[in-house]
C-alpha cells in the first residue's frame, strides 16, 4: 500500500490542516488552555468579582474585603480540593460534613475530658478520620454500591455518634476552652493565626493543598489513575490500574481533609460543636461542580475546585457587603450549580465526540 | 518459510459438554496478516481467548516461535509479545491520547516525592509510534474521545506495538465502523505488517479481510472450514464460504426483490 494513498483518506488527523484552518492556525498552548476543565469557573469567578466590585464598592475590593472572601473560602476550599480528586475518580463522599464535627469533638473530648495535650489529640483525630475514610472506600469498592448511598449512611452515623458520645461523656454537644490545653501555642500559629494582615493561615493550607493536588493529578502516575478510575473503570482495570486502591486512598484523602478543616476551626475558635460542618458535604460538591468537574467522573481539576470555593466566598461576603438580604445567597448558589452542570455537560459532549 | 511466531496445532476447547473448538490449526508469520473469518458462534472468540491466554486449550498444542507454551493468563501471553486489542479498545474517552497510551505503564523521571510522569517523552513517543502507522497527530493531549473510531484503533494498535507486541490479535476492529473508517483501519493494519508484526485479524466481513489478508482461516461451528493462501482464493469464494453458499442462495431466493443487497457491503 503506497504512502500517498495512505494520507488522503485519513480524515480528522492527517488531512485536516487544509480543511480546518481554525484549529490548525491556533497555537497548541492556547487550545490546551481552552480545553482545561476550570476555564468556565475562571470566567465565572472573574465576572462575579467584577459584579461585586461594582455593586459592593470599595469595601469589597479592599484588603479587608478580600480577606473576608478568602477567609470564608479557605476551609471549604481545603475540603473541595480533596473532594474534587475523589469525584474525578467517580465517587462521592457525603460523610465529610459529619467528619468535621466528629474530628473536632474528638479533639475537644480528648483534651478537655481526658486531659490529653493537643498534639496527640490531633494525631488521634487524623488516625480516626483515616480509618473512617478507609471504611467508606472499602465498603464502596467491596459492595459495588453507589458511594452516594454508602457515605450518606456514614454521614448520619457519625453525626449521630458524635452527638451521642459527647452528650454521654459531658452532657453537652459544644465544648470550649482549647486555649487552656497544653500545646495550644504552636498549634495556634500553624492552624489559627493570621499570616498577612487579616489573611488567615488557613488560606496557606488551602493554596498548598491545591498545588499538591494539581501536581498529583497532572504530573504523577497516581493522578493518571485517578482520571482513569473515574473515566472508565473497566478499561482502567484492563490496563493494570489498581482502581480499588486508588478509590480507597481518595476516600482517605477526603476524610483527612475534613479532619484538617476541623483542626483549623477548633484551633481558631478554641472549641468545637458536634453539629459543625453541617451541609459542608454539599457545599464542597457544589464548589467542585462549579469548578468544572463532572459528576460522572473522569474529568475535572483541583484548580476548578479552588475557583468554586472562591466563588462561594465571594458570593457569601459580597452579598453581605452589598447589603442584600443573605437569604438570597442560597438562591444564587442553586442557580450557579445548575448553570455549571449544564455548561459542564456541554463541555463533556464536546470532549467525548469525534471532531 | 520461516518458523511461525504463533501456531496452534489441532487445538480443541470444550466447556462442559459443549465443544467450542474442534482440532483447529492455524499459524501466523512475522509481517503477515492471518485473517480469521467466521460467523457469530463459529468459535472465533474462543480461539482468540486461547491465543490471548484467557483460556487453556482442552487439547492440542500452542507454539510460540516453535516452542510449546502454556499460558495461564493474558499477562503470560503479553510477556511473549502476543497482544490482543479488544473491540472496546480499553480506552478512556475523556483522557488524552498520551495518557491513554501509557495508562498503567507511565514512564517516570525524578525520585521520591518528585517522581513524575515524563510528559515530554510520552508525547514524543506517541507522535512517533502513531506516525509509523501514518497518523499525524495534531495534539497528543487531545482527548481520545475526539478521535474517530479508526483513529482510536490506530492508538490501540500503536500502543500494543510500542509495548512489545510481535503478534497483534485484532478482535473485529472494523465491525463498528463505516466503510470509510474501516478502510482507514485496514491501512493501519498494513502499516503494522510493514513493521514486521504478525497480525491475526478477526472479522466476519470478507470484504474487509480480502484486501489485507495473506492467509484466510475460515471457522465454522468450531472447525476450520478452510485455510487458504491469498493466491488460492478469490473474494467471491471467500464471501460464499463465509455466508455458507447454500444459505446465501436460499436467502437470495427468498429476498429476490433485491438480490443485489447481499453484495452491497463491498
Short description:
The complex is a heterodimer of chains A (355) and B (266). Chain A has 355 residues and is mostly helical.
Report what the structure shows:
The complex is a heterodimer of chains A (355) and B (266). With 355 residues, chain A is mostly helical. Chain A has one domain: ABC transporter involved in vitamin B12 uptake, BtuC. Chain A has helices spanning 3-8, 16-19, 21-25, 28-34, 39-55, 58-61, 63-88, 96-113, 118-143, 147-170, 184-192, 201-219, 221-231, 233-238, 243-269, 280-290, 302-322, 328-352, and strands at residues 174-176, 194-196, 199-200, 271-273. A two-stranded antiparallel ribbon of chain A has the order 1-4. In chain A, strands 2-3 form a two-stranded antiparallel sheet. In chain A, β2 and β3 form a beta hairpin. Residues 1-25 of chain A have low confidence and may be disordered. By secondary structure, chain B is an alpha/beta fold. A 6-stranded mixed sheet of chain B has the order 6-9-10-3-11-12, with helices on both faces. Chain B has one domain (6-233): Rossmann fold. The longest helix of chain B has 16 residues, at 179-194. In chain B, β9, α6 and β10 (198-203) form a beta-alpha-beta unit. In chain B, α4 crosses α5, α5 runs parallel beside α6 (179-194) and α8 (235-243) crosses α9. Chains A and B meet through α1, α4, α13, α14 and α18 of A and β8, α5 and α6 of B.
Topology:
The complex is a heterodimer of chains A (355) and B (266).
Chain A: H1 3-8, H2 16-19, H3 21-25, H4 28-34, H5 39-55, H6 58-61, H7 63-88, H8 96-113, H9 118-143, H10 147-170, E1 174-176, H11 184-192, E2 194-196, E3 199-200, H12 201-219, H13 221-231, H14 233-238, H15 243-269, E4 271-273, H16 280-290, H17 302-322, H18 328-352
Antiparallel strand pairs in A: 1-4, 2-3
Helix pairs in contact in A: 5-17, 7-12, 7-13, 7-15, 7-16, 7-17, 8-9, 8-10, 8-15, 9-10, 9-15, 11-15, 12-13, 12-17, 13-15, 16-17, 16-18, 17-18
Chain B: E1 6-15, E2 18-28, E3 33-38, H1 44-51, E4 59-64, E5 67-68, H2 74-79, E6 82-85, H3 97-101, E7 108-109, E8 116-117, H4 119-132, H5 149-162, E9 167-171, H6 179-194, E10 198-203, H7 206-212, E11 215-220, E12 223-229, H8 235-243, H9 245-254
Parallel strand pairs in B: 3-10, 3-11, 6-9, 9-10
Antiparallel strand pairs in B: 1-2, 1-4, 4-5, 7-8, 11-12
Helix pairs in contact in B: 4-5, 5-6, 8-9
